[in-house]
Amino acid sequence: MSPIERVADKLEAPDLDNRSYRVIRLRNKLEALLVHDPDTDKGGAAVNVNVGSFSDAEDMPGMAHAVEHLLFMGTKKYPKENAYNEYLTAHSGYSNAYTAATETNYYFEVAASAEPGSEATTNGVPSSPLYGALDRFAQFFISPLFLSSTLDRELKAVDSENKKNLQSDNWRLSQLNKSLSNPKHPYHHFSTGNLQTLRDEPQRRGVDVRKEFIDFHDKHYSANLMKLVVLGKDSLDELETWVGDLFDGTHNKNLPQMRWDGLQPYTKNELMTQIFAKPVMDQRLLDIYFPYQDEYYMYETQPSRYISHLIGHEGPGSILAYIKAKGWANGLSAGPMNAGPGSAFFTVSIKLTEEGLRIYEEVVKAVFQYISLIKEHPPQKWIFEEIKGMAEVDFKFEEKESASNFVRSMCSTMQKPLPREWLLSGTDLIRKFDSDAVTTALKYLRADNYRLTIVSQTYPGDWDMREKWYGTEYKVQHIPAEFVAAVKEAEATTAQNRLPDFHLPHRNEFIPSKLTVEKKEAKEPMKAPKLIRNDETVRSWWKKDDRFWVPRANVFVTLRNPLASAVPANSVKTRMYCALVKDALVEYSYDAEIAGLEYELGDYYVGMGIDISGYSDKISVLLEKVLITMRDLEVKPDRFKVVKERLVRGYRNHDFQQPYHQVGEYTNWLVSDKGWINEQYLAEVTQLTPEDISSFYPKLLRQVHLEILCHGNIYKEDALRVTDLVESTLQPRILPQAQWSVARNLIMPPGSDYTYRRTLGDLANVNHCIEYYLFVGNGVDRDLRAKTLLLGQMTDEAGFDQLRTKEQLGYIVFTGPKSAATTMGYRVIIQSERPTEYPEERINAFLAMFGKSLERMSQEEFESHKKSIINKRLEKLKNLDQESSRLWSHISNEYLDFLQREHDVEHIKPLQKSDMVEFFNHYIHPTSSSRAKLSVHMIARSSPKNVAAHISPTEQKEKVVTLLGKYLTTMGVNADVDKLTSRLEAIDVAGGDQVGIVDAVATYLDEDVQLSEEKVDAVLEQGQQLLGTILPSLGIEVKQSVDGVDGQNFPEAPPVKKTTFIENVRDFKASLESTAGRRPVTDLTEFEDTEPKL
Ligand SMILES: [Zn+2]
């Protein structure tokens, strides 16, 4: 066929990558990257066209985006509009596309192989789904029809896409920056478009919009500006033939790349101004925008990487460390932002505290002082080497991404002027240190070359403008002369008069240097770790990675000490201690984080736990630092105050969580032998003093038992060394086994039925919640476990369908197994505005109904449930972290049941329907005399009625009008309170006539505001949801419409026995027996791999 030019076939790739690559160019100048992946179960392809919203006509914003939507509407070869998507759906695939400033990207994913048993070709056409999809896909770039019958619908899709974004601050603030930029630069464009810009207004001007779209396509779509990526299981030669055959017909118009080199998004009109913008969400931001250079061709040096590394640093001496210590900010990010060919911004974005917002000028000055520090030092080679080194490590050990993600992002990368051998590493790697380039780049960060944006819901409050496309309220002004002068002064500081807090970062000791992984192909990966040390002080477990071959590891350490949680006061002291240690390590651990190393320190019922995860080379460096900080912590009163405030706030906020997040805590508390709840912690935490912590924590460390797991790229000797490190740093006394705490649960006797009621702490919440818990038995009883798991699977969809979809009891409905320390059961959670007795009754009805359908269930359906739950239990481990946490959970729960999943499957397989019926009738059925039940009811203190008692119907109506007015304003609709009030005059608002309210608002929008029909629909659709929450919050009970849920015939609830209310929790617990404690299911010696004792 056509002569195909081979451009490259050796691509720089990650170490673990087993794909092969080839870059080719067709005679129409279309360039393609072919990828052969022997293991993939999905194939995919993407086309990226080098045109986007920057090329939109001034009077038709959104054109490029509309063309993207319309291109898919039929081709000459496959005229049916959805032929492409139908084909993809039939072969487990899907497609998507996006439009950016100068590119439009189309991509799809599809099954990699044909059905087993089918022929390789049918009538000479390859039967691979990838070939079939490519054939349909290619036609969009050869002979699209832009079917006129689909025009209106696709423009409506564009319109609703825009509506979805209207309340998103990201979109609103980004457009505000665009709208307030140089109107001559295409960055100024509104890129999404809507019905008004793409249909209504052009039609009013007499424009044939469909013709405009076709012309746009003719003018800008050319093979020489297109990149193609195809990934499949098929060989590169095969893929090459397919691409040559299918894409040869794409027209080449030899178009030049569009550039805007002579223009800048900010001119002197935009520079040195400050914009105050009001966000939808409660957030406070300060953004500094510097006009910056386009680094398009600087992929080898990328000077902005050096600058963003320093400005964005969080370690000692950094901007963030300083403004955080001052209490001005919680976060900072910095980096370049492309604004199209020829221009860019360098942005510094800061999350402010309330105090920081008040004195934001000081924050800006601090940033400029730090910039003067960077400029004062010549660019440092060693800093560059650190950035380069980490980039290399991350690229080298990158894991595969999905087919569609890969083709999508790679296709965009292909538009960059990179040597084709570097397509995969792209701009991830940074190759050359160019000191002059950094110095030049830094010249853009000047005190006469920026613009500020200050985002807050309250400050300054006098926004007087409204952004055209999203309706964002804002105000813009020149930066006052005094402030300009102060910033210039900050920029001019020198080592003599600069804040002493600022200095360049120290060398990062965490950058990994040894990254070798020894890959020994194991026939069968090991399921359990080895026990490499087992004595009175320590139990140390180890497993060398035999699946993932990454140079990473996870280390877990438990410091076992019953003191940590003996009483609630101890629990909060332990938690406070952990928080103080973390606070002391914040700046230090930032270096580790940059180098891909993280740690966690926390309290739990047996003591404290340290988890460290990352590149194995430097794990012990970080572990040692954590241990030393723990051992030598000095409790500083000022840090204590800050950390305690945060902790107290956390315990207080607990009561304001959604009730369904709270309910489980009470159930767990009621069924455990020991354990505490939030209110007990809260009572203690407010009492804490610094002395409490400094006198308590040495006791936590003095006498402990250590349990350790090292898993990953780590040898036995290293794991033993980690063990020694913990032991020698802390030097604890032995905690005899007899003093280890034993976790047990309480046994709910057969036939028991208890209810525990609690009122919600949040006075304003109107949602009740119920957890309906059925006790089954001991968690290690393999047969009962298999049946409970299978029951969970069988009721999953059925419970949701009946209780949520059909009966609409509430938005939150969960059903399924629930396990405690030593026991397991089955539970249903419902959060509902209905008083808890009602969902309780409906759950009884559902279970009775399910019991009947279980008896009637066909053998086929029963087997398919079994298959589903077995597949879930046997799902492949995806990465090292997942395996590590699974191993650790089996160790830390003391059962050492590493083969639990295999045992589950063995016990599910033989289950017969009759077994399940018997199980269900014994443990679950509401009329069973042998089941054991505990219900926890969370009672909302507020209710529509309750609220109503404190508010008159007139006030209710006024509030509804005010809230509706607010809502309309945020939708960019004029809200005239008087007119709105008169429209609602005859409506029974206090009586909850939601239908009437909606109708009245519709009339207002239609007649008073004269909105278009589409806009009215959009406003009402969201408004209706809003009414659902504002009416109850004002004490108004919404009237059920005639076809509401009450009118239906739901299954009847069976009569059940009377429940016993738990009045005194201690008495209740004392009345129950407890289970055996946790003990290994396999003898420890089975895992031992220890040196012989002498
Ligand atoms: Zn779209």
Topology of this structure?
Blueprint lengths: L4 E4 L11 E6 L5 E6 L5 E8 L13 H8 L12 H8 L3 E6 L4 E8 L9 E2 L2 E2 L2 H11 L11 H15 L3 H11 L15 H10 L4 H12 L5 E7 L3 H12 L25 E5 L7 E8 L10 H9 L7 H7 L3 E10 L5 E9 L1 H5 L1 H17 L4 H16 L6 H11 L21 H8 L8 E5 L9 E2 L6 E6 L2 H11 L38 E5 L3 E7 L7 E9 L7 H27 L2 E8 L2 E9 L3 H14 L4 H18 L4 H13 L6 H8 L4 H13 E10 L3 H15 L2 E2 L18 E7 L8 E11 L3 H25 L5 E8 L3 E10 L4 H20 L2 H15 L6 H13 L7 H9 L4 H11 L8 E8 L4 H5 L4 H18 L6 H7 L10 H15 L4 H21 L26 E2 L3 H6 L24
The structure holds zinc ion (ZN).
Q: Which descriptors would you attach to this protein?
A:
1094 residues, 7-stranded mixed beta sheet, 29 strands, protease, PqqF-like_C_4
- Hetero compounds: zinc ion
> pLDDT below 50 for ≥5 consecutive residues: which ranges?
1041-1047
Distance between the termini: 77 Å
> What percent of residues adopt helix (DSSP H or I)?
40-55%
Which word captures the global form? globular
Domain Peptidase M16 middle/third: 395-684
Pfam families: Peptidase_M16, Peptidase_M16_C, Peptidase_M16_M, PqqF-like_C_4
Domain Peptidase M16 C-terminal: 210-388
Keywords: Hydrolase, Metal-binding, Metalloprotease, Protease, Zinc
